[in-house]
Automatic annotation (TrEMBL):
It is found in: Cytoplasm. The keyword Membrane does not apply. The keyword Metal-binding applies. It comes from the Bacteria. Its main location: cytoplasm. This is Heme chaperone HemW. Probably acts as a heme chaperone, transferring heme to an unknown acceptor. Binds one molecule of heme per monomer, possibly covalently. Binds 1 [4Fe-4S] cluster. The cluster is coordinated with 3 cysteines and an exchangeable S-adenosyl-L-methionine.
């Protein structure tokens, strides 16, 4: 049930706080700043020209500190954060010193578990050896770098501002600074991308020596510059058959190199290399999302912050939480989300999470080659290689 609320009216019910700390608990920090706007991106981000004097990294950081302090109070005795993920936007635009201040704010308000995973996203063009050294000194344990493609013409279509070789160099710099866990992001299926372009990108990823890769099919989001170009006929829409072929190509290359899928869009070299923060999302954990437009979830209650950085800072300066709206998930909502998210994992979904109809559909899907027979015999719904390509359709069957 969705309910809009004024910022000063939001209170977490005691039922949501019950069990807090027994589930994974993470903190997500949204950095809304970007140097330029990529044509495919519909995230809550702003360039300096769009913001003018309305907001700045300084006002954002002050607001963030206030939100985290309010969050700790609302949670009562908050658990120490198992994971922290700083995303955006372009967190690396803040520089190592401000990112250190972000982590210090989380540490002061929540505390960090002894083995906490602490990740920040970065644009390779706004990083350097000194930047990575500063992050390591501050306590970051993981870096995720936006690469998208190694092909210049693909980067141009995506409006990505970085030179093709820079992500590989940045990944090597991060590893040299002591980061054991480094991720590179890819996007596949961009109009004009050829199989040889993706092969070049995969070769570059593997040459970088990273232990994690995330790869996402291009989605043309409404309201983006890319969507307008597709609508005008300047670019073709992504083709489903091409997307499937590209996925199979990158899965084969990554698997051969020792990076194995653990979630439909994510590959890791070992269990330790998996992104624990994202696993918290997929396994129904709790997290506080801080920053403009960030989403949070605790105990079946989900809420989201006001989007504009100036409004965000203003609400917090007034001593209120910046919540724009919230929803209390019903049992049906939570069941659907569990099936949708856990089925995407390599370990799959326990059949006990399904009703009798869902179990019948799981058996039928296994007979059709969409779920593994071995998984079914062990009481789990586990996607086959073909099933990964049709994961959304399998989910719809299991919850019908």
């Amino acid at each position: 049930m969705s309910t809009a609320v004024s910022p000063d009216a939001f209170v977490l019910p005691s039922s949501a706080l019950r069990g807090l700390g027994t589930r994974p608990f993470g903190v997500y920090v949204h950095v809304p700043f970007c140097a330029t706007r990529c044509g495919y991106c519909d995230f809550n981000t702003y360039t300096a020209g769009e913001l003018g004097t309305a907001a700045s990294p300084g006002s954002w950081l002050e607001g963030l500190r206030r939100e985290l302090d309010l969050a700790a109070g609302m949670l009562g005795t908050p658990p120490a954060a198992d994971t922290v993920f700083v995303g955006g936007g372009t967190p690396s635009l803040l520089g190592a010193d401000r990112l250190a201040a972000v982590l210090e704010a989380v540490r002061r308000s929540f505390g960090l578990a002894d083995d906490a995973e602490v990740t920040t996203e970065s644009n390779p063009e706004s990083t350097s050896p000194e930047f990575f050294a500063g992050l390591r000194e501050a306590g970051y344990t993981r870096v995720s770098l936006g690469m998208q493609s190694a092909a210049p013409h693909v980067l141009r279509i995506l409006d990505r501002v970085h030179t093709p070789g820079r992500p590989v160099a940045a990944a090597r710099e991060a590893r040299a600074a002591g980061f054991e866990h480094v991720n590179l992001d890819l996007i596949y299926g961009t109009p004009g991308e050829r199989s040889e372009d993706l092969r070049e990108s995969l070769d570059a990823v593997l040459a970088a020596g990273v232990d994690h890769v995330s790869a996402y099919a291009l989605i043309v989001e409404d309201g983006t510059a890319l969507a307008r170009r597709v609508r005008r006929g300047e670019l073709p829409a992504p083709d489903d058959d091409v997307l499937a072929a590209r996925y199979e190509q990158l899965d084969a290359a990554l698997s051969s190199a020792g990076l194995h899928w653990y979630e439909v869009s994510n590959w890791a070299a070992s269990e330790q290399a998996r992104c624990r923060h994202n696993l918290g999302y997929w396994l129904g954990g709790d997290w506080w999302g801080a920053g403009p437009g960030a989403h949070s979830h605790v105990g079946g209650v989900r809420w989201w912050n006001v989007k504009h950085p100036a409004r965000y800072a203003s609400v917090l300066a007034g001593g209120e939480v910046p919540v724009a709206g919230h929803e209390v998930l019903t049992d049906t909502d939570r069941h659907l989300e569990r099936v949708m998210l856990e089925l995407r994992l390599a370990e799959g979904l326990p059949l006990t999470a399904l009703g009798p109809g869902g179990v019948r559909e799981a058996r039928a899907a296994a007979a059709e080659g969409l779920l593994t027979g071995d998984g079914l015999a062990e009481g789990r719904a586990v996607l086959t290689d073909r099933g990964r390509l049709l994961a959304d359709a399998v989910v719809r069957r299991l919850v019908s």
